[in-house]
Amino acid sequence: MTATEDPATARTRDRTEDSTAESAHERAAQRTDSTARAGSTAQTRTLLILGASGDLTGRLLLPGLAQLLATGRHPGLSVVGAGHEDWSAEQWSQRVHEATGKASEGADTAGRQTLERVRAESTYHQADVTAPGVLSGLIASLEGPVAVYFALPPRITVLACERLAEDGLAPGTRLVMEKPFGTGGESAAELNALLRRLVPEQQVFRVDHFLGKGTVLNILGLRFANRILEPVWNRDHIEKVEIVFDEDLALEGRAGYYDGAGALRDMIQSHLLHILALLAIDVPAALHERDLRDAITTALRSARVPEPFSASTRRARYTAGAIGERTVPDYAAEPGVDPARGTETLAEITVEVESWRWAGVPFVLRSGKGLGSRRKEAIVTFRPVPHLPHGFRGTDSPTRLRIGFGPDTLELDVDVNGPGDVLTLNRVTLDADLNAPDLLPYGEVLEGVLDGDPLLSVRGDTAEDCWRIVEPVLQAWAADEVPLEDYAAGSTGPAAWATSQRERDEG
Ligand code: BG6
Known about the structure:
One of its GO terms (molecular function) is glucose-6-phosphate dehydrogenase activity. It is an enzyme of class 1 (oxidoreductase). The chain contains 15 helices and 18 strands. The chain is α/β, with parallel strands linked by helices. The site of 6-O-phosphono-beta-D-glucopyranose has 6 residues, from helix 10.
């Protein structure tokens, strides 16, 4: 306790610190329990990163990994990079150094030792992993169990896996697949079939880094550890659920990937459907990969976008504009963009979840780029009260729960008696900043890979279901059944969209 701190504050702080330490132990124990039941308890000994010289490895993978290693929880891990580029040992070492150096700053002794060892020992191999025998030879030369991270374009990943299927793999090998998982339902099913020839499903880790975001995982604690929410978490009390992920980033030089994907595939198919699933699932018995992933699959299997798509979906593309001080060119004029493709940079779909719990409740999913402000949240709007006592004045606004995904916040908008005239309703917001997680999302997902626990990975059947939900919409858009609207970069989106209007009103 500090000199100025009152005893109650000190108690709260101690409880928080104790529970943080406890929860780290509990989590480790729970992972062991979970992986034991999944049938694969061995810690990964070597992480082999394919595409080691690529952008994803430098920007997301190594920083997430370094932060994880800084916890000291994986002291024996070796990290090996492989790539098509002719990189020298120094170039690779420099890349590892950049990521680990920063993580060392906050690490304890065990964490620092792990980072130093990884930095000193990590090697880079120039390799064409699509050539016969190359990848399997490399894996066989490493200490197992090996986790192979395919940070590669999807087409190369498939070719590399086909080679592995010819050569076979050591039993405990784990395969980590980056998104997009396939280009549609059919190719996702083909890729799943190929992976089944290589390893059991529990050893396949399909990455959705949103499942590693602390705030996304907080949905589970919020829903299932609080008695007051679950009884009202259904169609009787909830009017609609919105999941919004508006980014102020524009194309950022990613035309090569993004122009072939668009907002519906890039964000809604890959990430937001999982947030929907966590908001919609029934209570699992345990946070075991099977219970949780079964529940997610059940929720997504009952989800669909109702026809006509002209009513349930919208798409738009940004034109030139300014975001703060930044001037943003017209998307269609960006280098590498083919305007004839009609790629959307903003997508919105209304999903129905066909179950007793959710029938009739719209789940509106919206995500886009080049917008004037960042807005990343799920908003649960409750139905009006059945009877408001006569005599109240003012507006009875709906109760709203907002879960922010960055900044990580929780807000509850409620009506109370107003100041001055006590019978006039007044809106107040109860808010809390949520704890920042220890790990970056990629670190969180990688920890599951190292522990052999696929809890935070997308299961094969779910990956196919996400495509099943969006594919009819993609077809309707390709057939121009829904107009491609436009919005100026830096705006809140097309003016007529209800979600854009709300952003203007509340932003
Ligand atoms: C990626 C998308 O998967 O997620 C990007 O490809 C998007 O387009 C990103 O910007 C958003 O994730 P985060 O973690 O930056 O919020």
